[in-house]
C-alpha cells in the first residue's frame, strides 16, 4: 500500500533517492518552490506507508492559449525511485495529472518531454496513450545533451485527438512556442 498526497516543501529534503537517477531532471530549489506555489494541484508525491520514504513524484503545470485549443497540462517531471519501479506508481500519478488537466483546468491535452534514449519511459508513455508529436533537437543540454520527444495525449475535450497529430518535422528548442 502506498500513500499519494500533495507535495510539500518538506519533501524537498527527502527526495534525493528519487532525484539521483540519470534520467531524472533535477532542478534548483527555487524552481520547485515556484511550481509548489503556482500549481500546487499538479504536484504530488507517493510515499511508503511505514516510514514516509518518497517513492516518486509528479510535478506539472497548465499553460497555453485557451481560445486556440492550445490550453494544456504539462508534465514537468515524473519520476519513481529505481527500487519502486514497475509497481504502477507512474501510471497512478499520470492518471491523477490527466484528471486535474481535464476536470479542473478544462484543457485539451497533456504534453511532456522525454529523452529519446529513455526507451523504457517512451514505451510506458505510449502504453498510457501518448504519441510522439515532434522531436526537439538538442532539447536536453549539458554534459548529456540529446534530443527529446514531445509526447502528447488528448483529453475528452479533444475527441478528434487533433492535438496528437504529429507535427511532421523536427524542431529546435527556440521554435517550441511557435509550433505549440
Automatic annotation (TrEMBL):
It comes from the Eukaryota. Keywords: Acyltransferase, Transferase. One of its GO terms (molecular function) is protein-N-terminal amino-acid acetyltransferase activity. Gene3D superfamilies: 3.40.630.30. Belongs to the acetyltransferase family. ARD1 subfamily. One of its GO terms (cellular component) is NatB complex. This is N-acetyltransferase 5. InterPro entries: Acyl_CoA_acyltransferase (IPR016181), GNAT_dom (IPR000182), NatB_acetyltransferase_subunit (IPR051646). Residues 2-156 form the N-acetyltransferase domain. Pfam families: Acetyltransf_1 (PF00583). Coiled coil: none annotated. It comes from Naegleria gruberi (Amoeba). The lineage of its organism: Eukaryota, Discoba, Heterolobosea, Tetramitia, Eutetramitia.
Amino acid at each position: 500500500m502506498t500513500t499519494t498526497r500533495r507535495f510539500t516543501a518538506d519533501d524537498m529534503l527527502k527526495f534525493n533517492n528519487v532525484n539521483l537517477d540519470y534520467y531524472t531532471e533535477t532542478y534548483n530549489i527555487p524552481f520547485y518552490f515556484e511550481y509548489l506555489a503556482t500549481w500546487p494541484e499538479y504536484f504530488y508525491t507517493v510515499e511508503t506507508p511505514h516510514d514516509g520514504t518518497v517513492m516518486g513524484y509528479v510535478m506539472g503545470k497548465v499553460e497555453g492559449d485557451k481560445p486556440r485549443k492550445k490550453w494544456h497540462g504539462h508534465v514537468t517531471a515524473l519520476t519513481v525511485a529505481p527500487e519502486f519501479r514497475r509497481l504502477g506508481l507512474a501510471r497512478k500519478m499520470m492518471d491523477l495529472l490527466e484528471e486535474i488537466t481535464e476536470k479542473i483546468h478544462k484543457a485539451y491535452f497533456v504534453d511532456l518531454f522525454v529523452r529519446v534514449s529513455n526507451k523504457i519511459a517512451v514505451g510506458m508513455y505510449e502504453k498510457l496513450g501518448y504519441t510522439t508529436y515532434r522531436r526537439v533537437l538538442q532539447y536536453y543540454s549539458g554534459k548529456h545533451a540529446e534530443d527529446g520527444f514531445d509526447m502528447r495525449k488528448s483529453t475528452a475535450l479533444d475527441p478528434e485527438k487533433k492535438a496528437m497529430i504529429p507535427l511532421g518535422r523536427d524542431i529546435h528548442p527556440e521554435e517550441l512556442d511557435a509550433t505549440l
